[in-house]
Design goal:
The chain is mainly alpha-helical. Helices cover 71% and strands 2% of the residues. The protein contains 15 helices and four strands. It has helices at 17-22, 24-29, 31-46, 53-78, 86-102, 107-130, 136-155, 165-172, 180-198, 200-210, 212-217, 222-248, 258-269, 282-300, 308-323; strands spanning 160-161, 174-175, 178-179, 250-251. The strands form two sheets. Strands 1-4 form a two-stranded antiparallel ribbon. Strands 2-3 form a two-stranded antiparallel ribbon. Mean pLDDT is 88; it is low at 1-6.
């Protein structure tokens, strides 16, 4: 008996490059990278020192905290949620670090205290959202206020100076162009990328964000996933608190609430769907760099800092509009 070969149906032709460039979805997927290149060209044209060694180095160092916070925000948004408390939790973790430091505790223990403080707030967020069935923005708005209040109570409303040669070297030195804080941020990005795309947990995160009902039907505990992603966000906020102390040499109870908006902006610019189920780590990292470059460039060309939140807001709205074309 002679076997009859069955020809496979021809594959659909790939779209021509010119057609892809006309497709808004293409630009939506690459918004962060295109924005980063475009801003670099514009600011370099306006000020020749923009791409100087020292300025690029300072941009990368300044972006480290936002990169780490944005990665944590990515995990919560990937499940269809949002964490509005990241900036306040970071401030509380920094104050916890400062309080432990004034007690004479060893530096590694102070760092552990900061991370545990962030972890605790993240876990509380996750449990209230997953088990309490309370909307995420309500819970995280509440913990935003609670973390800010605890930071003020713990520090008595005063900044605490933290003098540490190790932290000073960590925040000012590095490998060539890349400071240690930025290297740490990239290391976290690599690890979380592997977790999100090469582990069962990452698959469950995206599945829970895509359709909670379908994920539950396949045996995925969406409640555990929710608790886990908010805990990750809290841990990364605690870690950012350490970087904040290292950068300014003190723990201040004054929360930088604009950092929360910037994390959401970086995630949106990075092509992560606010509806959940679609995420990337590289995108938010590039988004964080775009926002840092934007603020640095505006400062360098002499634009008043009062206009910087306006510029960030416009970028976020434009990115959200572009997301409508994502496939």
């Amino acid at each position: 008996m002679t076997a009859t070969a069955i020809d496979a149906p021809p594959a659909p032709p790939a779209p021509a490059r010119s057609q892809r460039l006309k497709d808004p979805a293409f630009w939506a997927d690459w918004a962060a990278l295109v924005g980063l290149i475009g801003l670099t060209i514009v600011f370099q044209a306006l000020n020749s020192t923009f791409l100087s060694y020292g300025n690029v180095q300072s941009i990368l160092v300044a972006a480290a905290i936002l990169v780490i916070l944005s990665i944590g925000q990515t995990f919560t948004i990937a499940t269809g949620g949002i964490d509005l408390s990241v900036a306040s939790v970071m401030t509380f973790a920094a104050c916890a670090f400062g309080w432990a430091f004034t007690q004479g505790w060893a530096l590694p223990l102070c760092m552990v205290i900061a991370v545990v403080a962030g972890l605790a707030f993240g876990a509380v967020n996750g449990v209230l959202i997953a088990k309490g069935k309370i909307p995420d923005f309500v819970v995280t708005l509440g913990t935003l206020s609670a973390a800010s209040g605890l930071a003020l109570i713990l520090s008595d409303g005063k900044p605490t100076t933290v003098i540490s040669p190790f932290l000073l070297k960590f925040s000012t030195q590095g490998l060539g162009l890349f400071g240690w804080t930025f290297i740490l941020a990239i290391g976290i990005a690599v690890v979380t990328h592997v977790v999100l795309f090469n582990t069962r947990f990452g698959t469950h995160v995206l599945a829970a964000g895509g359709s909670a009902e379908a994920a539950t039907a396949t045996g995925i505990s969406t409640a555990r996933i929710k608790i886990a992603v908010y805990t990750i966000s809290g841990v990364l906020a605690g870690l950012s608190g350490i970087l904040l102390v290292a950068r300014i040499g003190a723990s201040s109870p004054a929360a930088d609430t604009t950092m929360t908006l910037n994390t959401v902006a970086a995630v949106v610019l990075g092509g992560v769907s606010l509806l959940g189920g679609r995420a990337t780590i590289v995108g938010p990292v590039l988004g964080a760099l775009v926002l840092t470059v934007l603020v640095n460039g505006l400062t360098l060309v002499g634009v008043s800092q009062f206009y910087q939140p306006l510029a960030v807001g416009i970028v976020v709205v434009l990115a959200a509009l572009l997301m409508r074309f994502q496939k």
